[in-house]
Amino acid sequence: MIKTMRVSVGDAIIRFLDKQYVSFDGKETKFVDGVFTIFGHGCVLGIGEALALGDHTLKTYQGKNEQGMAHVAISYAKQNNRRKIIPCISSIGPGAANMVTAAAVATVNNIPLLLFPGDTFATRRPDPVLQQLEQPSDLNITTNDAFKPVVKFFDRITRPEMLESALLNAMRVLVDPASTGAVCIALPQDVQGESYDFPLDLFEKRVHIIKRATPTDEEITEASKLIKSSKKPLVIVGGGARYSEAGDVIGDFCKEYNIPFAETQAGKSTISAENPMYLGGIGVTGNLAANMIAKDADLIIGIGTRFSDFTTSSKTLFKDAKVLTINASDFHASKLNSQKIVGDARKSMEMLFGALMGYKSGYTNEVTKAQNAWKKEYERLASIEYSEDLKPEVCDMTESTMKDFCKATNARLTQTKALALIRKHIEEDAIVVGASGSLPGCMQRMWDTKSLYSYNMEYGYSCMGYEIAGALGSKLANPKASAYAFAGDGSFLMLHSELVTAIQEKSKITILLFDNGGFGCINNLQMSSGISSLATEFRYGAKSLTPFLKISYADVARGYGCKTYAATTEEELIEALEAQKEDKEVVLIDIKVLPKTMTGGYEGGFWQTGLTHEPRNPKQKKALLELKSKIKD
Ligand SMILES: Cc1ncc(C[n+]2csc(CCOP(=O)(O)OP(=O)(O)O)c2C)c(N)n1
Ligand SMILES: [Mg+2]
Fold first, then answer.
1. How many angstroms separate the CA atoms of 37 and 351, rounded?
2. Which of 326, 306, 363, 174 is nearest to 249 (CA)?
């Protein structure tokens, strides 16, 4: 007779979560310390009751927006290199729907995220319940079916008996390096409160081993043959290398065999920028050094990368090179017509290290030359000052964006200079968090770091509104570190709700708000493609040539209870950056930066976007010709 325990479904979930552990290289970590929730009628009674009155050790965090709280959880999991999660619980209907975007963020970035949205009554007696969608074509469809395209595992618990297999499958996916992402277990609100005799061992401590998948000897032999035939190989370090904690092996490998390495947004801070073979960010948002080397490379060795179009410059950056991929996921390893090693990054690189003995790449002084060219360019970017006739760094302006914004806000700082000042004045080991707008591009180029795992950029989905929640998630994961959110004004306006959660949790984060008067990078794209500015700047009526809105983000944040600073000049920014280090509370620095002063692309850092095939003006025609030539050659 198996022993059982009679508890509600809500209680069973909470008890189960409290007992899950993961083991990686023999090191055990408790997988769940707390959960995030916004209660509503779809979850406050069943699973909410279990949280409030049940027997468990989990902390309950109060979210302010379901998408925001899930962003906190994603960043937390990322900062923990996928070995800890914060499950998110929502009510039914809109609360659940708010988590769909975040589920996609997690899935795209291969980050474990466990979601428990409330669902409509399984019995269908209160029908339609408040917030029920009612799909006349299929009564089984609820709002939660919207999760299906964006999660790696979905289940709906319409009977308590179903819970055991749902939870075990959820764990199977969450801890699998090759297939992790968002997992959704929808909980009909009646079933949450139903009791069942669950097998007792479901609530016993369970340790899930995170596997380092070993490639075959044949894969290694073939890969080493390929590398040995290459004169100019280039390693690209992606997020998979970070989560596998392969940085030291890859760094030594590159030094030993004289192979330069570049990094993707997710791979940044896996290996110290002090490594002599370090180039920095690659691709559309890559720096001069990485893109110079990539252009002439004859072999690309992509470790744990998805090869997004930003990394490959829409497949134009290294189109003549052969590609070797090393990835735990066969799907990602099978891209770009590559030769592949399907396996854990660290394990694979250790094996490859041994197999390559005696090899040296053919680089002589190319790497140093590229590094020096970028150093010089960095210095130029770091010292661009405001002047009346300052030329835009990106997109030749036909309209008065910079002047009008100066007039409204007194902005005197360029974005590139502001970034360089921040790099210089904040702690070397600070965790920097961002996601969207022009900042990720600038940071992938300009942000070098010696400190391990100190760069937390969500650039898989590039979801506006991750930045502040993400900073909180990284701070919760690493309370001793300083955490900085790099947020555009557009992103701030879209979603900053978890700022209040950070205040509530007394989790100091510093928000560096870059106010450039609108959706800057999209305005650049629009205007440089020959379309006039429309609805991409924060002007009255959202039209060009009307005055800019004057928004004090410092005042907004002060209202929440933040310590705030405002900076329009270099002196003010330095003063604020230094002063805030002593502050104990959540900080926001409202930095007014000049539009069009972000970094541009280097060495064919081309990004394919949809263009009209029937141009209406010469600029559009030029853009179309450029697109055609890029795609052709
Ligand atoms: C949720 C979401 N909606 C829309 C976009 C498309 N988008 C990318 S960047 C951007 C503008 C960002 O503006 P801001 O945060 O001010 O950054 P800036 O480009 O001005 O530096 C938009 C609308 C997105 N990435 N995410
Ligand atoms: Mg902006």
1. 44
2. 326
Number of H helices, E strands in the chain: 24, 23
Q: Which amino acid is at 464?
A: M
Q: How far is the centre of ligand 2, averaged over its atoms, from the C-alpha of 490 (Å)? A: 5
**Residue 491 alpha carbon to ligand 1 centre in Å:** 6
d(CA 406, CA 413): 10
Q: What are phi and psi of 186, to 5 degrees?
A: -80, 135
**Buried-exposed string 529-568: b where 16+ CB fall within 10 A, e elsewhere:** bbbebeebbbbeeeebeeebeebebbebbeeeebbbbbbb
β pairing state of 4-8 and 195-199: antiparallel
Signed CA dihedral, 147, 149, 152, 155: sign only = positive
Longest CA–CA span in the chain (Å) reads 84
The set of residues, in sequence order, having a beta carbon less than 8 Å from that of 138 and lying 6+ positions away, is: none
488/520 Cα distance (integer angstroms): 9
Cα(7)–Cα(609) distance, integer angstroms:
54
Write the burial class of residue 414 (CB in 10 Å: 0-12 exposed, 13-18 middle, 19+ buried): buried
Ligand 2: centre distance to CA 453 (Å): 26
Render the burial of 213-231: b for 16+ CB within 10 Å, e for the rest.
bebeeebbeebbebbeebe
Asked if residue 398 has pLDDT above 70, the reply is: no
Q: Is 437 in the pocket of ligand 1 (CB under 6 A)?
A: yes
Residue 323 belongs to what H/E stretch?
Answer: strand 322-327
Chain segment 94-146, per-residue pLDDT in tens: 999 999 999 999 999 999 999 999 999 999 999 999 999 999 999 999 999 99
The residue-averaged pLDDT of 34-60 equals: 97
- Ligand 1 site, residue 38, Cβ cutoff 6 A: no
CB under 5 Å of ion ligand 2: residues:
488-490, 516, 520
**Is the CB of residue 490 below 6 angstroms from any atom belonging to ligand 1?**
yes
Tell me the two tokens of residue 528: 């440089």
Ligand 2 centroid, distance to 366 Cα (angstroms)? 37
Burial classification of residue 191, based on how many CB atoms lie within 10 Å of its CB (0-12 exposed, 13-18 middle, 19 or more buried): buried
Per-residue pLDDT reduced to its tens digit, 432-462: 999 999 999 999 999 999 999 999 999 999 9
Considering every ligand atom shown, identify the ligand nearest to the alpha carbon of residue 415 and give its number: 1
